[in-house]
Amino acid sequence: MADFVKGLLLSIFSQKCYDEYFLNYNFFDVPCFKSTLSKALGIGIIAGSILVKVPQILKILGSKSAEGINVYGVYLELFAITANFSYSYVMNFPFSAWGEGTFLAIQTAIIAALVLHYGGNSLKAATFLAVYVGLVSTLVSGYTPKDVLWSMQAINVPIIVIAKAIQIITNYKNGSTGQLSAVTCALLFGGSIARIFTSIQETGDSIIILTYCVSTATNAALVLQLFWYWNVKTTTTKNKKKKKRT
Question: Where are the membrane-spanning stretches (predicted)?
């Protein structure tokens, strides 16, 4: 039992920090505090990412509509997520530093498929999922050169800006955030802020850190739009009410 507990603790603490805390009883070691906080935040982000986009998926399924969600923005976001976790996996960064990418990728791919499906193209949705699974398998197989993965990660910065800008502009033109989930956007914003700290602590990779800084700024813009358009009804709802009256 003692070995099991120790093994569990070592999943959060490094061996050095375990010794400092539980053998030397030094609870004021600053490097260990930062390392442990980063690891705990990483695990928390991964746990939260398992369900972070589920509210968005349920909202689309519940309304049987993906109105207001720009599929090209979703494609670009999916590319950014995929490039990030593929690069991190191949570079052998700690799972706690990038693990949420796997869950975010799955959920984002489902959202893209739903947008296509409710847009009237179910065959395209199924084909998209099949192609995406094949692409991810190739990227993490070890056969894709690291230079290619690094380049994909490097262009994440402009891609994230473009992806979010597409959605932000779509919201502005519609005068509404449509079927965007406030819960999902808020969680992504909070997670990206925490990832700046964990990336500094666990990877030290400047391109990863820059990516999360940009992601935080763009997620903040979407959250601000959600508040701005909070009481605005979607165009579809208004049209339905007009039809009922006539």
Answer: 40-58, 70-89, 95-118, 125-143, 149-166, 178-197, 209-232
CB 163 within 8 A of CB 217: no
Non-local (6+) Cβ contacts of 175 within 8 A are 229, 232, 235
Buried b (16+ CB within 10 A) or exposed e, 211-220: bbebbbebbe
For residues 124 and 7, what is the distance between their CA atoms, to the nearest angstrom? Answer: 46
Going along the chain from its start, the domains and CATH numbers come out as: 1-48 (no CATH), 51-144 (no CATH), 145-229 (1.20.1280.290)
Identify the pLDDT of residue 236: 47
Q: Is 180 exposed, middle or buried (0-12, 13-18, 19+ CB in 10 A)?
A: buried
Q: Quick one: how far is CA 91 from the chain centroid?
A: 19
pTM: 0.72
Instruction: Tell me how far apart the alpha carbons of residues 1 and 87 are, in angstroms, rounded to a whole number.
Output: 37
Query: Using 50, 70 and 90 to split pLDDT, how confident is the model at 5?
Result: low
What letter would DSSP give residue 217? H
